[in-house]
Amino acid sequence: MITAGIVGGTGYTGVELLRLLAGHPQVTLEVITSRVQAGQPVSAIYPNLRGHLDLAFSEPDPAALGACDVVFFATPNGTAMEMAPGLIERGARVIDLGADFRIRDLDVWSQWYGMTHQCPELAAEAIYGLPERHREAIRGARLVANPGCYPTAVQLGLIPLLETGAVDTSNIVADAKSGASGAGRQPRQHTLLCEAGENFHAYGASGHRHLPEIRQGLMEAAGGEVGLTFVPHLVPMVRGIHATLYARLHDPATDLQALYEQRFADEPFVDVLPPGSHPETRTVRGSNMVRIAVHRPAGGDMALVLAVEDNLVKGAAGQAVQNMNLMFDLPEVMGLQGIPVLP
């Protein structure tokens, strides 16, 4: 059995991670930390886990965490980079669901996250945890940077086009929408029911902190520069991301359906839908699946890609468990085969 610890188990990502790991047949949860809720049973904060998890929150203890096989960080940005070096020295492997290790250029990271990086050596070692691109590197990693929610949907939606050089990379557009859980559990005015309900708006249009992460992944897939316009939106639902992606084809005769079916044929968590489909966020709710459909509007030269995911699962906790499975040589789908909840 794999022993696991979670640092920061009280947010939406943390509880989703708890839900998945509590049902994982090869994982024993040993430590769940929260300074605010220390001493409280997990089921008192999250009653959906009652009868499934008999643990209490505790103060972060490097010795207890370092004794685990794997430690997940579901914490605000800046926390993992302070604790990860000591845990790795003790022999634990680390999966950070935050942004501390996602961006390789630490000057760019500091620009977007407003702080100086504390452990550049580990940042250089970290493997970006998108299995569909870095599966073999993840297997041997000591530290995995779990991708962000928007970056997962956008990259998976565009990778087949970029890897094959099928599109003009100078002007790609990613128009993405997310449910309110993507903003976290801390109260914020824009996610209050009276603010978010019956409302729909863009944000971060002049620059969003996921932009450099997405661009980094797309440039890697394309093997060169990528011009990207990324605009996120908040929609009045709890969970789910819908990304609508636009790129101009070099050859309008490109068989997009075949391209995507071939690229993702062996990917357990990417579902390429039949021609003419329009994926819905409700079809992935609670699951680790990304569903993708491709179109060529009016038979023109524009590739239109639609991608949906659950931002808390494939966009966060589920992908972290997928990465853990790879790191410990378990079946990649273990603990992640639940059927999406509908309606």
Please describe what this structure looks like.
With 343 residues, the chain is an alpha/beta fold. The chain folds into two domains: 2-125, NAD(P)-binding Rossmann-like Domain (Rossmann fold), CATH 3.40.50.720; 150-311, Dihydrodipicolinate Reductase, domain 2. 31% of the residues lie in helices and 20% in strands. It has twelve helices and 13 strands. A seven-stranded mixed sheet has the order 8-9-7-10-13-12-11. A six-stranded parallel sheet has the order 2-1-3-4-6-5, with helices on both faces. The model has no long low-confidence stretch (mean pLDDT 96).
Key structural traits:
Dihydrodipicolinate Reductase, domain 2; single chain; seven-stranded mixed β-sheet; Rossmann fold; 343 residues; 12 helices; alpha/beta; 13 strands
